[in-house]
Amino acid sequence: MAFTTRPELRGTFGVVSSTHWLASQCGMAVLDRGGNAFDAAVAAGFVLQVVEPHLNGLGGEVPIVLWDSTRGRPEVICGQGPAPSSATIDRIHEMGLGEVPGTGLVAACVPGAFGGWMSLLRDHGTWRFADVLQFAIGYAESGYPLLPRIVETIAMVEPLFREHWPSSAQVYLENGLPRAGQRFRNRDLASTYRRLVREAVSSASGREEQVDAAMRAFYTGFVAEAIELHCRTELMDSSGTTHRGLVAGEDLARFEAHHEPPVTADFHGWTVVKCGPWSQGPVFLQQLRLLEPYDLGGPGFLSAEHIHLVTECAKLAFADREAWYGDPDFGRVPLDELLSRDYADERRRIVGDRASLELRPGRPGGLEPHLPRRSAQKVTPGHWTGTGSKSLGAVRGDTVHVAVADRHGNLVACTPSGGWLQSSPVIPGLGFCLGTRAQMFNLDPEHPNHLEGGKRPRTTLSPSLALREGAPRLAFGTPGGDQQDQWTLEFFLAHAVFGHDLQAAIDAPMFHTSHFPSSFAPHEANPGRLHSEPMAHGVLETLRRRGHDVVETQAWSLGRTCAVGVDPETGILAAAANPRGGQAYAVGR
User: Fold this and answer.
1) pLDDT digits over 500-511, tens only?
2) For 35, 149, 424, 529, which has the most beta carbons within 10 A of its beta carbon?
């Protein structure tokens, strides 16, 4: 029997798993009061904005995959905002920049999280806007216990806040550097939430109409006005110079969260459901295609052969991500070819017994791949780049997750991110920050993910849904940037191939590769690098002999997967959460 840190939770009424115990409990409270899975996810999502502000916020983004039992099909809601209309390659070069900086206002896209959550609530939920927001308002107004990681994050950027970002200092350093565990309030954020509720309630009486009114208040009302004014200010970023932002009121007014069909692939009786190639989600499906013919169970779970095959297939799938993925509204992404079994057969032939040290994108449909040409962007010491995860130590969190299943057969997985307190200055009076997702664009005009106004960046955010013989079974996801579709893939294989329950699959030792370029500035790559928690005796030594550059991490340091599931035959619900990081929690009854 596999070791677990806690039991897989099982029940019949409802289950919630998220990256923070307060969000999970608030989601469960919604279920207890008659809300459905989508109401619960929205309530939990707003709580996560308050209690994990170093990992997500109201100015960020959220992709969502869901199964609504009343519709009987999987769906995607794209809460990823696009680049501002004035964002062009020439505009960035005119600023004296060789790349989009990893911090500051230049990297801001239109905030998509609020539109994504509101679309989920309006189109699939049952609760009113004011009711789902009550939990987040309470914690922002009355306070919540600060996580040690938040304090460490604020301490790292304290000089930046005091010297260059006074609006951030006002919120996070008002009474000096906070202490871990202290009760912390964000009154400006509470006021923003309360005003959104007031304007929604005063504008309409119907539930859906109030949700629409809240979106107007955000995207064309007082929030949009404050964001536009904020972006006119010259503020420091990681390039070492000050720049204005590019987001304007008209960009916010044009935004609408997209409802779109998902991308899927079959695997041994399962169907995995992902977002499109504006996310990195299809790499999960490409990995399944590559692994499909292998007898993974033969060598044994987490054997050297198992880890080698998964790692080498990941290198090929992520190489294709680098060459081919981008917003499909702005150019053809050959997704059908990339996910075809014939293409996987062709790619699989180059998987050898030794670790590859090359970045090798393929030629789907005979097309020639194009890896982005990148300029070396100066990064000023002392300023954060990307997620700043290297400074955070072992737990590389840059995102959050919430997954919910209810007794009605609804399932939803959401991966909110962006709007990190450490990466962009607080918008004065609103209490939250803009995102920095535009750093994922490149400035190579020949590449499908090059910067263009109105275009979605190819993000790392990647929630997952899985069906078994056509029936919804799992909703899951993790923070972790480029690692998301490696950690969740290994979780899925542990459950679907090796038969571990959800908690055992999460608790199993984890690994990933950083072989390919990081999605975050300054886009570093480590060819052949394999990061692994401690494995059984001899496994890592064997992988080193096979050419892998193995970096052994501390135990319990990789991954933050959250998962819920349902057995459609019995109606039994299940949930599990990751012990790594010491804050994720699953609840249910």
Assistant:
1) 999 999 999 999
2) 424
